[in-house]
Amino acid sequence: MLRRSGGIFDYDQRKVRVIELQEQTQNPNFWDDPEQARKVMKKLDHEKSMIQQWDTLKELTDSIKVYQEFAEEGEDVEAEIASEVKKLAKGVEALEFKNMLRGEDDHRYAIVTFKPGAGGTESQDWAEMLYRMYTRWAKKEDFDISVLEYQQGEVAGLKTATIEVSGDFAYGFLKAESGVHRLVRISPFDSNSRRHTSFCSVFVSPLVDDEIEIDINEGDVELQRFHASGAGGQNVNKVETGVRLIWEGELSDGSKEQVVAECQQERSQMQNREKAMVLLKSKIYELEKQIKEREKQKLEDSKSSIEWGSQIRSYVFHPYNMVKDHRTNHETSNVDAVMDGDLEEFIKAYLMEISASGSD
Fold first, then answer.
1. Do residues 4 and 12 lie in contact, with contact meaning Cβ atoms separated by under 8 Å?
2. Residue (of 247, 105, 109, 245) closest to 166 by Cα position
3. What is the CA radius of gyration of the chain?
4. How does pLDDT run across 297-340, given as a tens digit for each residue?
5. Which class is domain 218-295?
6. Is 11-99 CATH 1.20.58.410?
7. How confident is residue 235, by pLDDT bands cut at 50, 70 and 90?
8. What kind of architecture, by CATH, is found in domain 110-204+306-356?
9. Most buried of 15, 82, 183, 255, CB within 10 angstroms?
């Protein structure tokens, strides 16, 4: 039912890799280069995790074989077999997912920013729908979510929002969702019940840590303070604890860019400023990653670009029901399930596409 080696996973090769990495950590000079040492430890933890998951699947396979022997002897164990097979199928799918996440930053946490397009209330409502969709997906996948900033729309929806999705490989999964999302529906805000098209940009970046060095000239960063909004007790809107950092500078390809990062999560302005700086660096890092990807020309423009107007996915609520990804052509008519956070098939289709092309 499970092959020990061969194919993409190659269990035996991973075991050898763990031994090689462990030997490196035993070198007396291992920590002389802390940055390189941390990278080795990350790789070691990843290989161990993959092997552990495979061992768990092997145990499930052995358990199913035992139950099958009981069944051949006349025991009523159909329910037990069905339960173990379901666990095995889910585990294999999870392992397949993780095995495709081989990018340099795939193991990192993710920062997700929502920005509605033109269209006022209609687009802002669509942004909030996407915000809810991704938070539901994250909860289903047992990721932790922190709301870093959230600005409500004047009538409905949101003007902008940023969340941190914490957990191993959060960025690896969510990088599939970075781009412009298009909605077609009968607007609940139109008294004439006309069909409207709305857009929302979802920008996903890996959360930078000490391993990543992003040099920012402080003179290029404008600091703005504002009253925090949302849940927070009696102090909300009384003290300017929210922080907005605006960076204007030149990227490695010579292009000019303005990047904005906000945080109102913490109680103190200093903490929010520190967190906002991390977000700012994360966004700049993602922009630099995109430049490198374009230079390598490993992906078609429709797969790698997240520029405004280049929608990656369409959500049609009227005159029919359909969600279609324009990069992979994967689609479904079960719109309600997708909006409830069932994104696994879309993410898997994207990961398989870039895995087949040899890109991260």
1. yes
2. 109
3. 23
4. 543 343 333 344 468 999 999 889 999 999 999 999 999 999 99
5. alpha beta
6. yes
7. very low
8. 2-Layer Sandwich (3.30)
9. 183
